[in-house]
Amino acid sequence: MAKQDAVIRLLLVEDRLEDAENLISMLRNGGMAIRPQRPESADELNQLLSSQSIDIVLASMECKYLPFLEVAKAVEATGKDIPVLAAAERLDDASILAGITAGAREVAMRSRPEHVQFVVRNEFNALLGRRALRHLEAALRETERRCDTLIASSRDPIAYVHEGMHIRANDAYMEMFGFESFADIEGLSVLDLIAPADADAFKQVLKQIVKGGAPPRQLEIGARRADGETFDAVMEFTSATYEGEPCLQIVFRQQIVDVDMARELDTLRQRDALTRLFNRQYFMTEVESAVALAAGGSGLQSLLLIEPDNFEQSLDKVGLALADEVLVQVANRLQTAVHGDVSIARFSDHTFAVLCRGHDHKQTLAQAEAIRHAFENHILELGKQSISLTVSIGGVQIGERIASVPQVLGKCNQCLQSAQGVGGNRIEIFDPAARDRAEDERIHAWVQRIREALSEDQFVLNFQPLISLAGDITEHYEVLLRMKAPSGEIVAPDQFMPIAEEHGLLIELDRWVIGRTIALLSERRKLGKETVLFVKVEPSSLVEGDLHNFIGSQLKAHGVPGTQLVLQLAEPKIYTHLRPLQAFQKIVGAYGCRVCLEQFGTSLNSFQMLAHFDPAILKIDRSFIADLAKNQDNQKKVREFSTQAQKLGKKTIAEFVSDAASMSVLFSIGVDMVQGNFLAPASPAMNYDFG
């Protein structure tokens, strides 16, 4: 799937506006965030291509006002990396050949939503990959240039070696071995600088590297200068590239201290002072090496992150004075549970990590289960006190499809958070090669967890203020749903809401939120506070859940006027539920409730849609507010939205405001209300000072 927070700037070429809107709905139903535009003429097409940042062009092969061939040529003339996709009524050899010949990267069959979604998602991911690659290549060239400058001036003796021959060496290296210039050493075998007694050991290292193995971190040898004099040295190896070619970076360090002392110094650099496990800095170099092997096609590496469940509560029981002792006991217990070729580290305060080598998914799962079992029902003795701890484990099977350190750490942490959110004392391992099975197990656990939270009232509400720019001091808050994990930690909605939607649980969630919100409004009224609360509702709840009658009964039971409740609906979902939403708005309007249309501005013509659906408030989509102070196009659009809304008698809200500069722009544009963490983050209490 395309990244959830990545907006696809889509240029649609269709004869009929209805067909364009239908394609947009297909893509949004597939989980993609779309910023669509539709040119009305060839001139507008060229203007949009030259002045706007377009990600993908999706054009009908049957379009008459802008023929597909003309669109493809216009895109090609820009010289930009903008993929052109063809939308066809049917998919056969002739249509595919015609589309590809005309300049399409791919042809999508418009009558099959899943095919349209796949083609657009796949091409967008490929586009992101190409952009990332260009960025990385530029960054790599700049980094190599800087590194070359640093190496040249470094006092460490450094050389680059390819197939055992010198291809680069700095002045300190040549000085150590007694050479006048690089010309004296260029093409010289490194073996010529090794004392004869250690030549075989070095040859074995070279053979290991040639076969694709990882070089050792260090090798203690006798080195030989140009005049034949020998000295004790340590060689340090790092895989590298030089001028785009893979090679080996070698650092020679002359032994000037006792060997045992040197080893003790290395230990101090590598170990955590408290637990004596590897420290994070050293462990990350091990992870980087494992990821590099995976990128080269060598699998059988995995990473596990382990955290004690309810750690803070356990410390409350035994006292903070014993916190270090608890961590030492956890570290010791962890060491007894691992087996095979592994590295163990204290990764952060109370997070531990295990890097497994030579482990397939089955072996990784067995290793994780051994760790989990080692803590379950085990008592940690702390002098006169004792506690029992379970652990949650998140893991990743490192492979070519997840071969970058940020990806590995991010996915591993996500699995750990998910294991904790479901209840703790649990293992979640992500295996790209067995994604479907793991995903099914994860989703099943989350469905059970959501049902349990509903039945045991384990959801909580947070509140984020909406602040008037016109001086209105009425309390306005948006209600945000959170789940409380068994450990007491709060689980963010992006962890469970997509699963709830997919498994038909939104109706129950919407009813819980609305019921609790109206009860809170009643409590606020008793305190003399006329608070207005904004609540998100899903169209599926309105269509299938009889939500309008539930709202009416709750307002009546609690004695709350409907004017204090604002119901938020997402604009992209209006088109597919227009008739039931029109009926819903009429009914709740009779109660006094207002409707707010969020994600406003994401359709081809949002104001045209208002002729069929009449919300009182428009919440401008966050994509227009991001980087508002520097983005002239976004400023123009937000000003247009605000002006048009004022003419129609509607209020506007700018959400996700993140800086003071954007606030200044919004003041001048005329937006009615603002919301965002810059102003006030969401919190469990309604305590913002609106005065």
Question: What does this molecule look like?
Answer:
The protein has 691 residues and is an alpha/beta fold. The protein has four domains: 7-135, 3-Layer(aba) Sandwich (Rossmann fold), CATH 3.40.50.2300; 154-256, Beta-Lactamase; 269-446, 2-Layer Sandwich (Alpha-Beta Plaits); 457-674, Alpha-Beta Barrel (TIM Barrel), CATH 3.20.20. The protein is built from 23 helices and 27 strands. The strands form five sheets. Strands 18, 19, 20, 21, 22, 23, 24, 25, 26 and 27 form a ten-stranded mixed sheet that branches. The protein has a five-stranded parallel sheet with strand order 2-1-3-4-5, with helices on both faces. Helix 2 runs parallel beside helix 3 (68-78). The longest helix is centred in the N-terminal third of the chain and has 41 residues, at 113-153.
